[in-house]
Amino acid sequence: MIYIKLFLSFLQIGAFSIGGGYAALPLIQSQVVHIQHWLTAGEFTDLVTISQMTPGPIAINAATFVGLRLGGVLGAVIATLGCILPSCIIMSILAYFYFKYRELEVLQTILQALRPAVVALIASAGLGILVQALWSDSSKGISLETLSLSGGAIFVVSIILLRKRKMNPIKVMGIAGALNVVLFYASVLLK
Amino acid sequence: MEKGIIRKLFLSTFYLSAFTFGGGYVIITLMKKKFVDEYHWMEEQEMLDLTALAQSAPGAIAVNGSLIVGFRIAGIRGALAAVAGTVLPPFFVLSVVSMFYAAFRDNKMVSLVLEGMQAGVAAVIADVVIDLGAKIAGEKNVVSLLIMAGAFLCAYVFHINVIIIILVCVGIGTIRGLWNMRKDGTE
Fold first, then answer.
1. Among A155, B48, B60, B104, which has the highest number of CB atoms less than 10 A from its own CB?
2. Where does the UniProt entry say this protein principally localizes (chain A) (predicted)?
3. CA quadruple A181, A182, A183, A187: dihedral, nearest 10
4. Taking the C-alpha atoms of B163, B168, B173 and B174 in order, what is their torsion angle to the nearest 10 degrees?
């Protein structure tokens, strides 16, 4: 039955995609394209493109997309549940041990070593996004000439709004999106 | 009282998830701003601990992170509310978008807004990283600084899997912990 197949496939995706985000991509591809033949390679590329343009984790997006196509809304719900079930179980176990033993000195030293690493990982993810925003056409290489002026300007304005004005980050993102539209049409008009 | 918190938790994660373009770390930074800086529901250090846990488990970081943060704030019901809030927006948005995919993909306005938002997202992450990094630098602990620099190089320059980075840090922490215990024992 398709619902059971969907559930089991996305259960595997949820259970084995360690490292988050794009680490899950090859796993999703092997399940839905190569093993189950639910999507063609072209449809999978569409799915990745949609995921990049919409909010949310790619595994959840894939579950919704494939589930909807094969089993309607119920299929989408079942695939999504399969996808998040392993997370829920494993995270609950980790949470239990963390809240029970976090006062232990050994655990405190371990956490102390982890915190700077987490900051570094967030910084690394952020820098990756920044490079993409500033050099949107990476095929031209990364140099001062290929720098996207609008991207740079939006980044600077956003930083000022966040740090000096302490503006709500969601508002800042909205302004950033609107600003890019304005800058684009302004540059078209000036030409 | 508790009911109010669960509702607030659900609405916050729903709202954050609906605007989270660009992966799990973005929602983690937004959750830190909302739950630590705005609501004061937890400490900054705890948020980093929970992020490390979310990173170590399989599955989407956004789901893992909201689950454990929800659990920390309001127990099992909090965890359920936070996960539902995180999963529902992409579920709805993708359902709608996949129906109008071609029109959506080729729309110039949509791609311009998304491109601009990317620079905005980078700024939001930079803002939080500056705060967190400055605090760690302020502790003037050489090991912490080395870990931060080393982990950054491993992740950004050498593209080493985050799980390996986390395991190495757990190893370093364990050795330090055992070392301290031995030192305390001999004194």
1. B60
2. membrane
3. 100
4. 100
Token digits of residue A188: 């078209």
Average pLDDT over residues B78-102: 89
What separation in angstroms does the CA of A38 have from each of A14, A23, A190?
18, 20, 48
Which residues of chain B neighbour A174 with C-beta distances below 8 Å?
Answer: 117, 120
Give the integer Cα–Cα distance in Å for B168 and B145. Answer: 15
A46 → closest Cβ in B93, B101, B174: B101
CA distance B81 to B74: 9
Instruction: Tally Cβ neighbours within 10 Å of residue B119.
Output: 30
Q: Which residue do the tokens 């070392």 mark?
A: B179
Q: How far apart are CA B11 and CA B81, in angstroms?
A: 9
Residue B187 has pLDDT above 60, yes or no: no
Supply the pTM of this predicted model: 0.82
Whole-number Å distance between alpha carbons of A32 and A63: 10
pLDDT band at B162 (very low <50, low <70, confident <90, very high): confident
Cβ contact (<8 Å) for B95 and A121? no
Size of interface A-B (CB pairs under 8 A): 354
The residue among A108, A130, A191 whose CA lies nearest residue B119 is: A130
Write out the H or E segment, with its range, that includes residue B173: helix B162-186
Look at B48 and A113 and tell me if their CB atoms are within 8 Å. no
Tokens for B54, please give them: 């979310």
CA distance A142 to A86: 40
